[in-house]
Amino acid sequence: MQRRERTRHLIELGGLVQKAGLVELTEDDRATIYGALLELVGRARGDDAGDTLALWKRRGKRAFDAEEEAREMAG
User: What's the short name of a Pfam family annotated to this entry (predicted)?
Assistant: First the structure.
């Protein structure tokens, strides 16, 4: 991945952290956000990893779809 692509990718990931509400929830405490993300990774590597990842994917897709639908209705 080239530098510009990597930078854009990292910015988009940061945007997802913001969009999910973690920044506001943790009052922008980086250690708390990092700890939460580490907890998620631990769960995703657990015995029911496939189910966990599938659940997260469904929730994320529904949220993206709802945002898109709201944008279409507003515009």
Answer: TraD
